[in-house]
Amino acid sequence: MNTVWRNFSTALTFLTIIPLPLRGKNITGCGELAAAAGYFPLVGALLGLIFGGIVFIGRLFLPTAPLIGLIFIANFILTRGLHIDGLSDTADGLVGGMEKERSLEIMRDSVIGAMGASAVMFLYAFKFGALLAIKTSVLPLVVFCLPFCGRWAMVFSGSLFGAARKEGLGRQFIEGLGFRQLFGAALIVTIVAAGFFYFAGSFLPQFLSGFCSATIISVLFAAWAARRLNGLTGDLLGAIDELAEAALLFGVFLC
Question: How far apart are CA 145 and CA 79, in angstroms?
Answer without folding.
Answer: 16
